[in-house]
Each structure stands twice: as C-alpha cells, then as structure tokens.
Design brief:
The chain is mostly helical and about 625 residues long. It contains 25 helices and no strands. Among the domains are: about 1-55; about 85-180, Alpha Horseshoe (Serine Threonine Protein Phosphatase 5, Tetratricopeptide repeat), CATH 1.25.40.10; about 480-595.
C-alpha cells in the first residue's frame, strides 16, 4: 500500500510540472512567467525523481517472509511452496546429520566386532532410532540371545512403527518358526508397503508361512500375486527382479509338490533353476545357494515320482554346492547341508543302500541337534523329521529297540510343537504315529498298534477333508496298515473295509499320476490278495473256499498288471517278488484242496508300510 501511494504522488508531481511548463511558456509568454514556470517545473521534476529513487532503494522481502503483493487467488499455493521448500532444506540437513551420526556409531560397532566382543558392541549402540534397535537385535542373534533379540525388535516396532521395523520382526519370527506372530506382522507390512517391490516381497513370505500352516489356497494366492508383480517389474528391469521371479517360482513349485500337482511343480522348478543357473554363472557367490536349494527340491519331486536316478543326481549336485558353501560360511549353510543329507538318506533307503542311508541320516541329525541346542525354536522341527526317518531305517534293519527310541523322541517333539501350532505340526504327529503303529504290530503290541493307527488315521482324515490333494495319499497308507493289522487279528470285516477304501483312494490318485501312485495300488491289491488267500477254511464250504481263492487270484493278477506299468525301483522289484510268492502259494493251496501233493512253500508277505518321505 505504501508503494502505491508513493507512485501516485510521484505521478502527480510529474503532471503538475508538465502543466506549469506549458502554461508558462505557451500561455503567459512573459519573463516572470518563464522564471516562475521554470522553477515550478524543475521543482516538480525533482520531486518525481526523489520519489522514484526512494522506491528503488526499498528493501526486497526475505525469501521466507510471505509477500502480500501478489494475487490473492494463489496465496495458499505460494505459502505451501515456501513452507515445503523450507521443510525440504531442513529434512536434507537432518538426513545428512543422521548419516554422519549413523556412520559414526556403525564404525564404532564394526571396530568392536573385529575384536570379537559382540556383547560390548551391543552395549555401545544407543536406542535413539529404529536402525540402532534392529542392529542390537541382529547382534543378539549372532550370540544366540534370542529372547533379548525379540525384546529389541518389539521395542523398535513400538517406538518406531514402520514397514522397516514390522518387516524385520516378521522375518525374525519366521526364522524362529513362530508362524502366527510372523503372519500378523507381515500383514501389517502389507498395509504399510509403499512400493510394488515391497508388497511382492511380503506376499512371497506370507506364501511360505501359509503353506507351512497347510493354508494352501492362501499360499497359492500369495505366491501368484507376488509372481505377477515380480514378472512385471522384471520385464522392465530384469537385472534387479529376475532373482525374485526365480525364488517365487521355486516356492510355488514346493506348494504344487505338496499338493501332488507334479507336472506344475516340475515346470515351476525347472524355470526357477534355469534362471538361477544363469544368474550364478555371472554372480556365483550370490546365486549358487539358490541353485542348490532348487536342485534339492527338484530331487524331492523326482523321488516322489519314483525317478530315483534323477533324484540322486539332483541331491548330490545340491549337496556338493552346499558343502562347499558351508566350508566357508558354516553358520549360514550347514542347515542346507543337513536338509539335503536327510533327503538323500530317504533315497538311499529306497534303493536298499541301508549303510549309506544310515550315514546320511546320522550326519544330518548331528548337525540339526547342534543347531537346535543353540536355537531350538528354529531347528527342533528338523530334528523330529530326521529322527522319524532314522526310525524307519532302524525298523527296516530289525533294530526294533533303536527304532522305538527314534520314533518316541520324534513324537514327543512333534506333539509339543503341535500343541502350540497344530496347523503346522499335526501332519508330522500323524506320520510318526503311523510308523510307530507298524513297529508295535511287529512287536505284537497289538493294543498300542491299534491306538497309534487310529489316532494317525483320525488326524489324516481331518487334514484330507480340508486339503484332499495333499493328504489323501496318507489316509490311504494308514488304511492299508490298519487293514493288515485287522487281518492279523482275524477281524476280517474291518480288514476288508480298510483295504477296499485304501484301494479306492490309491486308484483315484493313480489315474492322475500313475508314476507316483501305481506302486500304492499294487501294494493294496497284494494286501487284498493275501487277505483272501489266508481266510480260515475250516468253517467255510468248499465253494466259498474256492471263491475266496478266485478273488485272491483276481487281485494278485491285477497287482501284476499294475506293476508292469511301474518304474523299475527296488520297492517295485520287491512287490513283483511278493506277487510271485502269493501266486505260488495260491496254487499250492488249491492243489491241497484238490488232494494234490506238492512241496511245501513258505510265503513272505509284506508287512505294514512305513513312511520316510522327504519332509
């Protein structure tokens, strides 16, 4: 307003000077008028010049002071711009100071770590920000102080809630097998994620946890959304995001394998492996661990499909890589060595290489027990798996006492884990109960065998009602074992019902995947053939006796037809031998009934099938 008034006065003075000049020289035309006009004109011009000089010397406003000389329509926008600019400068200064401060404390911690004094390093870190608290937690993990680490993570989440802190604590709980807590924090991360990359990373982790909890539909949805995001990102930036594509494909393969969708599993694994091998050719230190992990999973898929040579090749290549990595970084890669050794033990056992199986299992168990002594939450589940598998080997070697000890220790761990998280660990409880039932039957502890089988069957039926693709094969297995148990106890009706239900399930499964399930069909057919072969003859008329033997012949013939279409594995060879034995004994029985003499023939029928798959 002040400037407007001064400009107006200057303009008026100038106009007055012009008017006086015209009046003096052109109207009055006198000497006095000329002198007067000249004075007034000069005065007016001087006044105008003074006013203009004053205006030019006026101070400009400070850049952070609001200038009110602009249009009012844009006043709010300009104010926001000025304040934003000021905040941006302040933020940059704070970031720079924070970086210098962080560099200072991190440098101090690094120096202490070089001396090996981790407790002192933890003590030297403050608690002023999230990075410091997370670093304290990570250092606690290095010296196996897991409760202390958990407290620092919780403190970070409470004091500095953000995607970063929620993700760190979720990852911690995931590694500790505390699945419910991990899922909760990852769900918080989904709400806080600010980029597609962050969302895809969280979804991939949630997929792993849902799969562990047998929530297969949720796992599939998480993986497929994560994979879609990563593929889209990789189409624009392959160098950064192709590794994530490969990892998610591997995890999706594990889920397909669990659901016995073997074709889809094979496609996911092979695509993942191709990407990882290409990446490892350029960056071996970074990507060889992923190559080893995918090879191990591919080996398990081959094992389930009775492609034992391919399984052996995958496992041995995976183990070679993991052993090499563990020789340099044991704390990181020894768990991978143990996992592949356990799977290789299963394969050796399937190939009747029992000594090699024992060596693989015992080395795996030693590694897992050492790890579990320092971090039980993370590694006790793996101890239970290997104990279960070692129990099946002892049982096959007729080391029944050792088998019982392995099974009971495994079952104790698994029951404890299932009491805290039944979704994740009840399948393992059922597996060990099934195997323990077979051992009790071998020891003629029929009451204990019946209790183990019936509890295992109850759990497996419940699981199969929710996830039939994953758990119906286990239902069929326990039904077969229960049928053989009832047959031994002359509970013929119960034996027949168990066998026939098992056969129906196995046939349905084999119609979709004969490589994996035809051996199970043949096993159950042989069970039914033996059932009719050994029905007591005393109370039956001759017609019924011959009818039973005819049914026995029918089932053994069907078993032989099924075995012709099975891959030639040691287990299948064993089944062929048993089918021949049943056929010979069957003809001997018929001959005896017809009073035809033959040399006595002893029959060796397979006992209950135990289970030692890659877990």
């Amino acid at each position: 307003m002040k400037k407007i008034i001064l400009i107006s006065l200057s303009s008026i003075a100038f106009l007055v000077g012009v008017i006086l000049f015209i009046h003096a020289y052109f109207i009055e035309k006198t000497d006095a008028g000329n002198i007067t006009g000249a004075v007034l004109t000069i005065s007016a011009f001087i006044g105008a010049i003074v006013l203009l000089v004053f205006l030019l010397k006026e101070k400009k406003p400070h850049p952070f002071v609001m200038d009110m000389s602009f249009d009012h329509e844009h006043a709010d926008e300009r104010l926001k711009e000025e304040l934003s600019h000021r905040d941006e400068i302040t933020s940059k200064l704070n970031e720079e100071l924070n970086r210098k401060y962080l560099r200072s404390w991190e440098r101090r911690v690094r120096n202490l770590l070089k001396t090996g004094d981790i407790p002192k390093a933890i003590e030297s870190i403050g608690e002023e920000n999230a990075q410091m608290l997370i670093r304290k937690a990570q250092l606690c993990i290095l010296i196996f102080q897991f409760p202390e680490a958990e407290q620092y993570y919780k403190q970070a989440v409470t004091a500095f809630p953000s995607f970063y802190t929620y993700y760190e604590i979720a990852s911690f709980y995931q590694k500790q097998h505390r699945i419910t807590q991990s899922i909760d924090y990852y769900n918080h991360c989904l709400n806080l994620s600010s980029s597609l990359n962050e969302r895809a990373d969280v979804l991939n982790s949630l997929g792993i946890l849902h799969k562990t909890n047998n929530a297969f539909q949720e796992a599939f949805e998480s993986y497929t959304e994560s994979l879609k995001i990563y593929m889209d990102l990789a189409s624009r930036n392959p160098e950064t995001y192709l590794p994530n594509v490969a990892t998610t494909l591997n995890n999706l393969g594990v889920l397909h394998n669990k659901n016995n969708a073997f074709k889809e599993a094979f496609e996911s694994y092979t695509e993942s492996l191709k990407i990882h091998i290409d990446l490892a050719s350029r960056h071996p230190e970074t990507y060889l661990p992923d190559v080893a992990a995918t090879l191990d999973n591919l080996g398990t898929l081959h094992y389930k499909n009775n492609a034992l040579q391919e399984a052996f090749e995958s496992y041995t290549e995976s183990l070679k890589i993991s052993r090499n990595l563990a020789s340099r970084h044991p704390e990181t890669y020894l768990p991978d060595v143990a996992a592949t050794l356990d799977n290789l033990g299963n394969l050796h056992q399937a190939n009747n290489s029992l000594q090699e199986a024992f060596e693989s299992y015992t080395e795996s168990l030693k590694i897992y027990e050492d790890l579990a002594s320092m971090n039980p939450d993370a590694y006790l589940p793996d101890v239970a798996v290997t104990l279960n598998n070692l129990g099946t080997l002892h049982q096959e070697n007729n080391a029944l006492k050792e088998a019982f000890e392995s099974y009971t220790e495994s079952l104790k761990i698994r029951r404890d884990l299932a009491s805290r998280n039944p979704d994740a660990y009840l399948p393992g409880v059922a597996m060990t109960l099934n195997n323990l039932g077979a051992l009790h039957k071998t020891n003629n502890a029929f009451k204990e065998a019946f209790e183990s089988y019936t509890e295992a069957l109850k759990i497996r039926r419940n699981l199969a009602s929710k996830h039939p693709d994953a758990y119906l094969p286990d239902v069929a297995m326990t039904l077969y074992n229960l049928g053989h148990f009832h047959q031994t106890n002359n509970s013929l009706q119960e034996a027949f019902e168990s066998y026939t239900e098992s056969l129906k399930i196995s046939r349905d499964l084999a119609s979709k995947n004969p490589d994996a399930f035809l051996p199970d069909v043949a096993t159950t057919l042989l069970g039914l053939s033996s059932f009719y072969l050994h029905i007591e003859d005393k109370e039956l008329s001759l017609n019924f006796v011959f009818e039973d033997k005819a049914l026995s012949f029918k089932y053994v013939k069907e078993a032989k037809e099924a075995l012709k279409n099975c891959k030639n594995t040691p287990y299948v060879q064993k089944l062929i031998s048993m089918a021949d034995s049943i056929t010979n004994e069957l003809f001997l029985k018929i001959d005896r009934l017809l009073n035809v003499s033959h040399t006595p023939f002893s029959h060796d029928f397979p006992d209950s099938v135990t289970l030692s798959p890659p877990d």
